[in-house]
Design a protein that fits this description.
ATP binds at residues 131-135, 194, 239, 295-299, 323-328. It is found in: Mitochondrion inner membrane. The protein is an alpha+beta fold. The chain has 2 domains: 3-99, ATP:guanido phosphotransferase, N-terminal domain (Transferase Creatine Kinase, Chain A, domain 1); 116-355, Creatine Kinase, Chain A, domain 2 (2-Layer Sandwich), CATH 3.30.590.10. Helices cover 32% and strands 15% of the residues. Strands 2-3-4-5-1-8-10-9 form an 8-stranded antiparallel sheet. A two-stranded antiparallel ribbon has the order 6-7. A hairpin with a 5-residue loop joins strand 4 and strand 5 (238-245). Helix 8 crosses helix 11 (249-269).
Length: 364
């Protein structure tokens, strides 16, 4: 009996109980899913499945298992495939609206703009800014997302991506490193230098099923300067990253736009395309990354401001968010924070970068 047959049988057993008996206890939760889910929505969606067999309970399990986060308000749900956002729209849509500052996917359309020449500023004060980075994610249409993909689908993502990336030329040219072929020391060195994703300890990954079969078909591709990188099969099919030391965000964004366009061209040349629609923009695993999927961030040392009780409110007013030095599930080390834009949908890439050019360093 294959995996989907087992799932179908489990769903039949599931229906023996009323939705009220299965409704999760969310009384101590503060994520977006918990705020938007109601017994009525749960009853309406519980027995629905996507064409790939993904269920509502699988979508929300990570948010049920993880009530909240000390730094940011988490979303609390993920998609298992592109169709999840349609089949479970009665929950995804209000979650998206709550997470993205009122963006309503039922009536609004998302703009895309990768014209880096429109960015006229973007040079940060390097007394405070240690490094600059822009990243996004892209999903390959026709293959399930990491929470639901089979081993074969995950390996196909890897194959499609690295075959395309072999076509990059000039300063974007590089090579692919399979996680399964790296030594522990090499992995840790790349993690410590903020090039490679961490080992699968994040609750988002583990509770959503994204750490299955680790490290099979996972890896990192980077150019020879390590300023343009692609993560493969972590939280998303691919994460495209442009980064460098210092505060030249304009140069980082220019490389990001140029590289991303070239990656998409190479993917399309091989008969594939990225998941996208005009309501949600680019489709990714977590609703927090819909739209542009773009996070433009800096590692910034702000010893005075970070101790100011107004710090979080200042960031909120600027539509910025803070993370620890090593990312979302880490603490700040030596007063170094990862500061980035919070909104990803409803504004184009150029607009998002322009808004993230505010420097929260004046009180440092």
């Amino acid at each position: 009996m294959n995996q989907r047959s087992v799932c179908a049988e489990a769903r039949e057993q599931h229906r023996l109980f009323p939705p009220s008996a299965d409704y999760p206890d969310l009384r101590k939760h503060n994520n977006c899913m918990a705020e938007c889910l109601t017994p009525a929505i749960y009853a309406k969606l519980r027995n629905k499945v996507t064409p790939n067999g993904y269920t509502l309970d699988q979508c929300i399990q990570t948010g049920v298992d993880n009530p909240g986060h000390p730094f940011i308000k988490t979303v609390g749900m993920v998609a298992g495939d592109e169709e999840s956002y349609e089949v479970f729209a009665d929950l995804f849509d209000p979650v998206i609206k709550l997470r993205h500052n009122g963006y309503d996917p039922r009536v609004m359309k998302h703009p895309t703009d990768l014209d880096a020449s429109k960015i006229t500023q973007g040079q940060f004060d390097e007394r405070y800014v240690l490094s600059s980075r822009v990243r996004t994610g892209r999903s390959i249409r026709g293959l399930s997302l990491p929470p639901a993909c089979t081993r074969a689908e995950r390996r196909e993502v890897e194959n499609v991506a690295i075959t395309a990336l072999e076509g990059l030329k000039g300063d974007l040219a590089g090579r692919y490193y399979k996680l399964s072929e790296m030594t522990e020391q090499d992995q840790q060195r790349l993690i410590d230098d903020h090039f490679l994703f961490d080992k699968p300890v994040s609750p988002l990954l583990t509770c959503a099923g994204m750490a299955r079969d680790w490290p099979d078909a996972r890896g990192i591709w980077h150019n020879y300067d390590k300023t343009f990188l692609i993560w493969i099969n972590e939280e998303d099919h691919t994460r495209v990253i442009s980064m460098e030391k210092g505060g030249n965000m304009k140069r980082v964004f220019e490389r990001f736009c140029r590289g991303l366009k070239e990656v998409e061209r190479l993917i399309q040349e091989r008969g594939w395309e990225f998941m996208w629609n005009e309501r949600l923009g680019y489709i990714l695993t977590c609703p927090s990354n819909l739209g542009t999927g773009l996070r433009a961030g800096v590692h910034v040392r702000i010893p005075k401001l970070s101790k100011d009780p107004r710090f979080s409110k200042i960031l909120e007013n600027l539509r910025l968010q803070k993370r620890g030095t090593g990312g979302v599930d880490t603490a700040a080390v030596a007063d170094v924070y990862d500061i980035s834009n919070i909104d990803r949908i409803g504004r184009s890439e150029v607009m998002a970068l322009s808004l993230s050019e505010h420097e929260p360093t004046k009180a440092a």
